[in-house]
Amino acid sequence: QVQLVESGGGLVQPGGSLRLSCAASDSILRFNAMGWYRQAAGQQRELVASYTFGGTANYVDSVKGRFTMSRDVAKKTVYLQMNSLKPEDTAVYYCYADRARPVATYWGQGTQVTVSS
Question: Helix, strand or coil for residue 61?
Fold first, then answer.
């Protein structure tokens, strides 16, 4: 069973930055996609950023130019660098990983990001 462990959330003022980490228990090269969802209170879960290892990262329009995904294969970790944070970015952020053989989606435990003055 693959485990994803997230870290890096917290409280930050508007305009600030945070970097989320998602460490996998297996090589991230085994996944055909990894990324981040977020869920604000009372709202549906939203795909924020995704990275397919044959291509490039994709972002929801609301975070383009502010959020950047990256990866460290040796550390089996993907990152989400979040800059110029806004109060509307406040949510629980979940890391996910999709595997094709066998078909499975794995989730992290979630990390709270709160943007407030």
Answer: helix
Mapping DSSP to helix (H, G, I), strand (E, B) and coil, where does residue 54 land?
Answer: coil
* β pairing state of 57-59 and 33-39: unpaired
- 83: how many CB neighbours lie within 10 A of its CB? 14
HSE-up (13 A, CA, CB side) for residue 45: 12
pLDDT in tens, 82-107: 999 999 999 999 999 999 888 999 99
Rounded-to-integer distance, Cα 44 and Cα 72, Å = 30
Compute the 3-state secondary structure of the chain and give helix, strand, coil in percent, each to the nearest 5: 10, 50, 40
Share of the chain above pLDDT 90, in %: 89
CA–CA gap between residue 84 and residue 107 (Å, rounded): 26
Give the Cα separation of 6 and 89 in Å (integer). 17
What is the total residue count of the chain? 117
